[in-house]
Design brief:
The protein is an alpha/beta fold and 247 residues long. It has a single domain, classed as Vaccinia Virus protein VP39 (Rossmann fold, 3-Layer(aba) Sandwich), CATH 3.40.50.150. The structure holds S-adenosyl-L-homocysteine.
Amino acid sequence: MNYLRSYRNIQPLIVFYTYILLFTLISFPSCAQNSDFAELRQHMVRTQIETRGISDPKVLKAFQKVERHRFVLPEYLPKAYEDYPLPIDEGQTISQPYIVAFMTESLDLKPSDKILEIGTGSGYQAAILAEICDSVFTIEIFPKLGEKASNIFSELGYKNIFSKIGDGYKGWPENAPFDAIIVTCSPSHIPQPLKEQLAEGGRMIIPIGSYPSQSLVLLEKQKGKIKQKKILPVRFVPMIDDKGKKY
Ligand code: SAH
Protein backbone atom coordinates (compact mmCIF):
# COMPACT_ATOMS: atom_id res chain seq x y z
CA MET A 1 0.00 0.00 0.00
CA ASN A 2 2.76 2.41 1.06
CA TYR A 3 4.82 1.31 -1.89
CA LEU A 4 1.94 2.07 -4.32
CA ARG A 5 1.32 5.50 -2.77
CA SER A 6 4.94 6.51 -3.12
CA TYR A 7 4.99 5.31 -6.76
CA ARG A 8 1.94 7.53 -7.46
CA ASN A 9 3.83 10.47 -5.96
CA ILE A 10 6.82 10.13 -8.20
CA GLN A 11 4.94 9.01 -11.34
CA PRO A 12 4.66 12.57 -12.80
CA LEU A 13 8.39 12.99 -12.27
CA ILE A 14 9.15 9.75 -14.13
CA VAL A 15 6.95 10.85 -17.05
CA PHE A 16 8.63 14.30 -17.05
CA TYR A 17 12.18 12.90 -17.11
CA THR A 18 11.25 10.35 -19.79
CA TYR A 19 10.08 13.23 -22.01
CA ILE A 20 13.30 15.16 -21.35
CA LEU A 21 15.36 12.08 -22.24
CA LEU A 22 13.41 11.43 -25.46
CA PHE A 23 13.64 15.12 -26.48
CA THR A 24 17.42 15.12 -25.94
CA LEU A 25 17.90 11.89 -27.87
CA ILE A 26 15.83 13.13 -30.81
CA SER A 27 17.13 16.68 -31.06
CA PHE A 28 20.79 16.36 -30.09
CA PRO A 29 22.05 14.36 -33.11
CA SER A 30 20.54 16.88 -35.58
CA CYS A 31 21.98 19.86 -33.62
CA ALA A 32 25.35 18.18 -33.68
CA GLN A 33 24.99 17.55 -37.43
CA ASN A 34 24.06 21.17 -38.22
CA SER A 35 27.04 22.56 -36.33
CA ASP A 36 29.26 19.99 -38.09
CA PHE A 37 27.93 21.21 -41.43
CA ALA A 38 28.58 24.85 -40.45
CA GLU A 39 32.17 23.97 -39.64
CA LEU A 40 32.61 21.98 -42.88
CA ARG A 41 31.18 24.94 -44.80
CA GLN A 42 33.63 27.46 -43.32
CA HIS A 43 36.45 24.98 -44.01
CA MET A 44 35.26 24.63 -47.64
CA VAL A 45 35.31 28.43 -48.10
CA ARG A 46 38.83 28.75 -46.66
CA THR A 47 40.50 25.76 -48.31
CA GLN A 48 38.71 25.45 -51.67
CA ILE A 49 37.59 28.98 -52.50
CA GLU A 50 39.66 31.68 -50.76
CA THR A 51 43.01 29.93 -51.27
CA ARG A 52 42.29 29.62 -55.01
CA GLY A 53 41.94 33.39 -55.30
CA ILE A 54 38.22 34.18 -54.94
CA SER A 55 38.22 37.49 -53.06
CA ASP A 56 34.93 39.37 -53.67
CA PRO A 57 33.51 39.73 -50.11
CA LYS A 58 29.93 39.41 -51.43
CA VAL A 59 30.76 36.05 -53.03
CA LEU A 60 32.60 34.74 -49.95
CA LYS A 61 29.74 35.81 -47.67
CA ALA A 62 27.19 33.99 -49.85
CA PHE A 63 29.27 30.79 -49.73
CA GLN A 64 29.60 31.06 -45.96
CA LYS A 65 25.85 31.34 -45.64
CA VAL A 66 24.21 29.02 -48.19
CA GLU A 67 23.83 25.47 -46.84
CA ARG A 68 25.07 23.31 -49.70
CA HIS A 69 23.92 20.20 -47.82
CA ARG A 70 20.29 21.30 -48.39
CA PHE A 71 20.79 20.87 -52.16
CA VAL A 72 22.40 17.41 -52.37
CA LEU A 73 20.76 13.95 -52.40
CA PRO A 74 20.49 12.38 -48.91
CA GLU A 75 23.06 9.70 -49.74
CA TYR A 76 25.64 12.41 -50.49
CA LEU A 77 25.07 14.44 -47.30
CA PRO A 78 28.47 13.49 -45.82
CA LYS A 79 30.12 14.70 -49.05
CA ALA A 80 28.17 17.97 -49.35
CA TYR A 81 31.23 20.18 -48.71
CA GLU A 82 33.82 18.16 -50.65
CA ASP A 83 35.91 19.54 -53.51
CA TYR A 84 34.07 17.91 -56.45
CA PRO A 85 30.73 17.82 -58.28
CA LEU A 86 28.02 15.41 -57.03
CA PRO A 87 25.24 13.51 -58.83
CA ILE A 88 21.67 14.86 -58.53
CA ASP A 89 18.44 13.43 -60.04
CA GLU A 90 17.98 12.84 -63.79
CA GLY A 91 21.67 11.99 -64.30
CA GLN A 92 22.68 15.66 -63.75
CA THR A 93 25.24 17.18 -61.37
CA ILE A 94 25.66 19.93 -58.79
CA SER A 95 28.92 21.65 -59.77
CA GLN A 96 32.13 21.67 -57.71
CA PRO A 97 31.92 24.55 -55.16
CA TYR A 98 35.01 26.28 -56.59
CA ILE A 99 33.53 26.33 -60.12
CA VAL A 100 30.30 27.86 -58.77
CA ALA A 101 32.42 30.49 -56.97
CA PHE A 102 34.63 31.15 -60.01
CA MET A 103 31.65 31.64 -62.35
CA THR A 104 29.86 33.85 -59.81
CA GLU A 105 32.90 36.10 -59.25
CA SER A 106 33.62 36.39 -62.98
CA LEU A 107 30.23 38.10 -63.45
CA ASP A 108 31.35 41.03 -61.24
CA LEU A 109 27.86 41.25 -59.70
CA LYS A 110 26.21 44.28 -58.10
CA PRO A 111 23.41 44.16 -55.49
CA SER A 112 20.97 45.79 -57.95
CA ASP A 113 21.56 43.19 -60.71
CA LYS A 114 18.88 41.01 -62.31
CA ILE A 115 20.31 37.61 -63.26
CA LEU A 116 19.28 34.82 -65.62
CA GLU A 117 20.49 31.28 -64.90
CA ILE A 118 20.13 28.44 -67.42
CA GLY A 119 20.19 25.02 -65.68
CA THR A 120 18.66 25.28 -62.20
CA GLY A 121 19.70 21.69 -61.35
CA SER A 122 19.88 21.41 -57.56
CA GLY A 123 19.24 25.15 -57.08
CA TYR A 124 22.52 25.78 -55.23
CA GLN A 125 23.96 28.25 -57.76
CA ALA A 126 20.66 30.17 -57.85
CA ALA A 127 20.66 30.47 -54.03
CA ILE A 128 24.24 31.82 -54.10
CA LEU A 129 23.22 34.42 -56.71
CA ALA A 130 20.09 35.35 -54.73
CA GLU A 131 22.27 36.22 -51.71
CA ILE A 132 24.23 38.73 -53.81
CA CYS A 133 21.75 40.20 -56.30
CA ASP A 134 18.32 41.76 -56.50
CA SER A 135 16.63 38.94 -58.43
CA VAL A 136 17.40 35.62 -60.06
CA PHE A 137 15.41 34.04 -62.92
CA THR A 138 16.31 30.39 -63.34
CA ILE A 139 15.22 27.83 -65.97
CA GLU A 140 15.44 24.02 -65.79
CA ILE A 141 14.48 21.57 -68.53
CA PHE A 142 13.72 18.57 -66.25
CA PRO A 143 10.44 19.16 -64.33
CA LYS A 144 11.53 16.92 -61.44
CA LEU A 145 14.65 19.03 -60.81
CA GLY A 146 12.93 22.38 -61.34
CA GLU A 147 10.07 21.52 -58.97
CA LYS A 148 12.36 20.17 -56.28
CA ALA A 149 14.60 23.26 -56.43
CA SER A 150 11.58 25.56 -56.31
CA ASN A 151 10.37 23.80 -53.12
CA ILE A 152 13.79 24.27 -51.50
CA PHE A 153 13.77 27.99 -52.44
CA SER A 154 10.41 28.37 -50.64
CA GLU A 155 11.56 26.36 -47.62
CA LEU A 156 14.66 28.56 -47.32
CA GLY A 157 12.56 31.72 -47.70
CA TYR A 158 13.98 33.07 -50.99
CA LYS A 159 11.49 35.58 -52.40
CA ASN A 160 13.83 36.86 -55.13
CA ILE A 161 14.25 33.59 -57.07
CA PHE A 162 11.80 33.04 -59.94
CA SER A 163 11.98 29.60 -61.49
CA LYS A 164 10.37 27.93 -64.47
CA ILE A 165 10.50 24.64 -66.34
CA GLY A 166 11.48 25.08 -69.97
CA ASP A 167 14.20 25.19 -72.56
CA GLY A 168 16.76 27.76 -71.43
CA TYR A 169 18.26 28.00 -74.94
CA LYS A 170 15.45 30.46 -75.62
CA GLY A 171 16.11 32.49 -72.46
CA TRP A 172 13.25 34.29 -70.69
CA PRO A 173 12.35 37.18 -73.04
CA GLU A 174 9.46 38.47 -70.87
CA ASN A 175 11.95 39.44 -68.14
CA ALA A 176 14.86 40.56 -70.33
CA PRO A 177 17.22 42.37 -70.40
CA PHE A 178 19.44 40.76 -67.76
CA ASP A 179 22.49 42.38 -66.17
CA ALA A 180 24.19 38.98 -66.10
CA ILE A 181 23.53 35.51 -67.55
CA ILE A 182 25.05 32.31 -66.18
CA VAL A 183 24.73 29.05 -68.09
CA THR A 184 25.50 25.83 -66.21
CA CYS A 185 25.04 23.32 -69.06
CA SER A 186 27.10 23.26 -72.21
CA PRO A 187 25.85 23.99 -75.76
CA SER A 188 28.11 23.76 -78.85
CA HIS A 189 27.67 27.49 -79.52
CA ILE A 190 26.40 30.62 -77.76
CA PRO A 191 22.59 30.74 -78.04
CA GLN A 192 21.56 33.84 -80.02
CA PRO A 193 18.49 34.53 -77.77
CA LEU A 194 20.81 34.78 -74.74
CA LYS A 195 23.06 37.28 -76.52
CA GLU A 196 19.97 39.36 -77.32
CA GLN A 197 18.66 39.21 -73.74
CA LEU A 198 21.90 40.51 -72.23
CA ALA A 199 21.66 44.16 -71.10
CA GLU A 200 24.05 46.81 -72.37
CA GLY A 201 27.21 46.50 -70.22
CA GLY A 202 26.04 43.01 -69.14
CA ARG A 203 28.15 39.88 -68.77
CA MET A 204 27.54 36.23 -69.58
CA ILE A 205 29.50 33.17 -68.44
CA ILE A 206 28.91 29.95 -70.39
CA PRO A 207 30.67 26.61 -70.98
CA ILE A 208 30.98 26.02 -74.73
CA GLY A 209 31.83 22.83 -76.62
CA SER A 210 31.16 19.15 -76.19
CA TYR A 211 32.74 16.79 -73.69
CA PRO A 212 35.69 16.40 -73.17
CA SER A 213 36.83 19.71 -74.66
CA GLN A 214 34.75 22.50 -73.19
CA SER A 215 35.84 26.02 -72.28
CA LEU A 216 34.29 28.53 -69.98
CA VAL A 217 33.70 31.65 -72.07
CA LEU A 218 33.11 35.14 -70.64
CA LEU A 219 31.16 37.57 -72.82
CA GLU A 220 30.52 41.27 -72.40
CA LYS A 221 28.06 43.45 -74.32
CA GLN A 222 29.43 46.90 -75.06
CA LYS A 223 27.66 49.40 -77.33
CA GLY A 224 25.53 46.52 -78.66
CA LYS A 225 28.60 44.45 -79.59
CA ILE A 226 29.63 41.18 -77.92
CA LYS A 227 33.26 40.69 -76.87
CA GLN A 228 34.26 37.23 -75.69
CA LYS A 229 37.24 35.36 -74.24
CA LYS A 230 37.95 31.77 -73.19
CA ILE A 231 38.98 31.61 -69.58
CA LEU A 232 39.09 28.01 -68.28
CA PRO A 233 38.84 24.39 -69.49
CA VAL A 234 35.80 22.77 -67.79
CA ARG A 235 33.44 19.78 -67.83
CA PHE A 236 29.68 20.39 -67.76
CA VAL A 237 26.59 18.35 -68.67
CA PRO A 238 25.29 19.14 -72.19
CA MET A 239 22.56 21.66 -72.91
CA ILE A 240 19.65 19.69 -74.38
CA ASP A 241 16.33 20.56 -76.02
CA ASP A 242 12.93 19.25 -74.87
CA LYS A 243 13.46 16.02 -76.89
CA GLY A 244 16.79 15.37 -75.19
CA LYS A 245 18.87 16.36 -78.25
CA LYS A 246 22.15 18.17 -77.57
CA TYR A 247 22.49 21.77 -78.74
N1 SAH B 1 23.31 25.23 -61.52
C1 SAH B 1 23.13 23.85 -61.13
C2 SAH B 1 23.98 22.93 -61.99
C3 SAH B 1 23.12 21.92 -62.64
S1 SAH B 1 23.86 21.00 -63.96
C4 SAH B 1 23.36 23.63 -59.66
O1 SAH B 1 23.74 24.56 -58.95
O2 SAH B 1 23.10 22.51 -59.18
C5 SAH B 1 23.08 21.75 -65.36
C6 SAH B 1 21.59 21.67 -65.47
O3 SAH B 1 21.21 22.18 -66.73
C7 SAH B 1 20.99 20.28 -65.38
O4 SAH B 1 20.09 20.23 -64.32
C8 SAH B 1 20.27 20.11 -66.72
O5 SAH B 1 19.08 19.38 -66.61
C9 SAH B 1 20.01 21.55 -67.12
N2 SAH B 1 19.76 21.76 -68.55
C10 SAH B 1 20.28 21.11 -69.63
N3 SAH B 1 19.79 21.65 -70.77
C11 SAH B 1 18.94 22.65 -70.41
C12 SAH B 1 18.14 23.58 -71.13
N4 SAH B 1 18.07 23.59 -72.46
N5 SAH B 1 17.42 24.49 -70.43
C13 SAH B 1 17.44 24.50 -69.07
N6 SAH B 1 18.19 23.64 -68.33
C14 SAH B 1 18.93 22.74 -68.99
